[in-house]
Write a structure and sequence with these properties.
The complex is a heterodimer of chains A (about 110) and B (about 110). With about 110 residues, chain A is mainly β. Helix content of chain A is about 0%, strand content about 55%. Chain B has about 110 residues and is mostly beta strands. In chain B, the strands form 2 sheets. In chain B, strands 2, 4, 5, 6, 9, 10 and 11 form a 7-stranded mixed beta sheet that branches. Chain B has a 4-stranded antiparallel beta sheet with strand order 1-3-8-7, with no helix packed on it. In chain B, a hairpin with an 8-residue loop joins strand 9 and strand 10. The chains are: A mainly beta (about 110), B mainly beta (about 110). At the A-B interface, strand 4, strand 5 and strand 10 of A face strand 5 and strand 10 of B.
């Protein structure tokens, strides 16, 4: 089955800095890679996703890159704000089955 | 904005008791899921449900677990005889389709088995 590794487990940045979270996956059949943000006491919320037919996708301050050859994908958050503080999960799916999640990254943005 | 709702938000139960966790998926969604998250660990898939039957389940989803869609709106997860290790946050999710479509998650039910 699919195995998703996520690094780092915690990430502390100053407000305004950029944050990068990296994930690798094992199943070459995976073709859908969402990122979820989980705030305290809430369920995971999709913030951006990428499919295997593209290498990069941007949505305002958030971008995701995908390298299918190396089987890794990354989340980039620019101009971080305190409200970006949360746990971020990457996930992978082969499109026909369910999501396999990484272990999560706790992002702390200090004012 | 449509959302997945789960009840209760927190459930405390004694070991060996049965619990039912309830979910109301988004109304026009066809695929339903249960995931769980043990404190401090990753979110793990339990089961997916489509067309009134289980379409996929993980090794975690053993005979102690069952799912049901008793009516047109609710989706339930039953744990027949709870164990201490069942303590976790349980998330329900739903999606409109199966192929590369967004899964919307509920806010979770925290199950504590004592």
């Amino acid at each position: 089955g699919e195995n998703v590794e996520q690094h780092p487990s915690t990430l502390s940045v100053q407000e305004g800095d950029s944050a990068v979270i990296k994930c690798t996956y094992s199943d070459s059949a995976s073709n859908y890679f969402p990122w979820y943000k989980q705030e305290l006491g809430k369920g995971p919320q999709l913030i951006i996703d990428i499919r295997s037919n593209v290498g990069e996708k941007k949505d305002q301050r958030i971008a995701v890159t995908l390298n299918k050859t190396a089987k890794h994908f990354s989340l980039h958050i620019t101009e971080t704000q305190p409200e970006d503080s949360a746990v971020y999960f990457c996930a992978a799916s082969n499109g026909y089955s369910t999501l396999t999640f990484g272990k999560g990254t706790m992002l702390l943005v200090s004012p | 904005e449509p959302e997945v709702t789960q009840t209760p938000s927190h459930q405390v139960t004694q070991m060996g008791q049965e619990v039912i966790l309830r979910c109301v998926p988004i109304s026009n969604h066809l695929y339903f899921y249960w995931y769980r998250q043990i404190l401090g660990q990753k979110v793990e898939f339990l089961v997916s449900f489509y067309n009134n039957e289980i379409s996929e389940k993980s090794e975690i989803f053993d005979d102690q677990f069952s799912v049901e869609r008793p009516d047109g709106s609710n989706f339930t997860l039953k744990i027949r005889s709870t164990k201490l290790e069942d303590s976790a946050m349980y998330f329900c999710a739903s999606s409109a389709g199966l192929i590369n479509t967004e899964a919307f998650f509920g806010q979770g039910t925290r199950l504590t088995v004592v």
